[in-house]
Write a structure and sequence with these properties.
This protein has one domain (26-290). It has 13 helices and no strands. It has helices at 7-21, 24-31, 37-58, 66-92, 97-104, 107-118, 125-143, 155-178, 184-206, 215-242, 245-250, 255-267, 273-290. Helix 1 (7-21) crosses helix 10 (215-242), helix 4 (66-92) packs across helix 9 (184-206) and helix 6 (107-118) packs across helix 8 (155-178). 45% of the residues are buried.
């Protein structure tokens, strides 16, 4: 089925992506007490590979050339390996998840700046304004939820999250430039194969790989595989292929607000008026980035 033949369905793709992507930290939060982070990612990638291989066989997907497959492997290392590995490592090194999210929240701005220079994507003043408004809203949402006591951030944790930020930004643009003609299913197989190799090396070198198998871990792992690694990533790759990099990246600004609302609904976590106001600022910022131009840019 070609989503482009169903405009209404296509318009739902960003919404579905944000809803799915926003649950990533929740799934990791449930799983990490019972398994080490790199080993969790290694097992997750192997499970995802099995599912994508089955889907590619069922739908008889077209396999990319060796060169195209190599580009997809690089995308996987950046978008999945370095990004997830960096965030998980930073949190393991005692960086608060909210601070990590603020730093990674620079992604839409960094992606737009790199895309401007690398791909020649031009942004209007109103779009730049939207990007900065979105960043301001995300920062307010996350900082208003932090504890007031002083925090000490280890240099290695800061380095890990910066690696994650640069990787997801460059990886998005790399996929836009080199992955546009590749089948989503077989392309994902190359992506997750390279990521599994990286996570396997990190897990076997730096971790003991002890796992406490229980229902919570298995359910969390199942959601991380089917909800995130399969559904959300396929939606992300579709958006990258069909849209401008800045527009796609701006949707990441909506993840912290949606996560805050989900935590309020599911776990009763406080949602104060400052956060509610910041959510509206963030949404308005994303609207400015996505707002159609009234004139055609040359």
């Amino acid at each position: 089925m070609n989503c482009l033949s169903y405009p209404r369905l296509t318009r739902l793709v960003p919404l579905l992506f944000v809803l799915l992507w926003s649950t990533g930290f929740i799934g990791a939060k449930y799983a990490l007490p019972y398994i080490e982070p790199f080993y969790l990612l290694f097992v997750r990638m192997l499970m995802t590979l099995v599912v994508f291989l089955a889907l590619a066989f069922v739908y008889r997907s077209r396999w990319p050339s060796l060169k195209q497959g190599g580009h997809q492997a690089v995308t996987g290392l950046l978008v999945h390996g370095c990004y997830l590995g960096g965030v998980f490592a930073a949190i393991k090194l005692d960086m608060p998840a909210g601070i990590a999210a603020i730093i990674v929240g620079l992604q839409p701005l960094l992606t737009s700046l790199i895309g401007w220079q690398w791909l020649g994507e031009r942004l209007r003043v109103v779009q730049w304004s939207g990007l900065f408004l979105g960043l301001a809203g995300v920062t307010l949402i996350l900082l208003s939820g932090q504890q007031s006591e002083a925090m000490v951030i280890r240099p290695e944790a800061a380095l890990a999250v910066i690696v994650a930020l640069v990787a997801i930004s460059v990886g998005t643009l790399y996929q836009k430039k080199f992955g546009g003609q590749v089948d989503l299913l077989t392309g994902a197989i190359w992506q997750y194969l390279s990521t599994a190799l990286l996570m396997g090396i990190l897990a076997f070198v730096f971790e003991e790989r002890h796992v406490e198998w229980n229902l919570t871990l298995m359910l969390s792992l199942g959601w991380l595989v089917f909800g995130l690694s399969i559904s959300a990533i396929l939606l992300l790759m579709f958006m990258i292929r069909e849209g401008e990099s800045a527009r796609v990246a701006s949707y990441f600004y909506l993840v912290p607000p949606v996560t805050s609302v989900e935590a309020w609904l599911l776990f009763g976590e406080a949602l104060n008026w400052l956060q509610i106001g910041a959510i509206f600022v963030t949404v308005f910022g994303v609207y400015l980035v996505l707002k159609p131009s009234t004139r055609q840019l040359d």
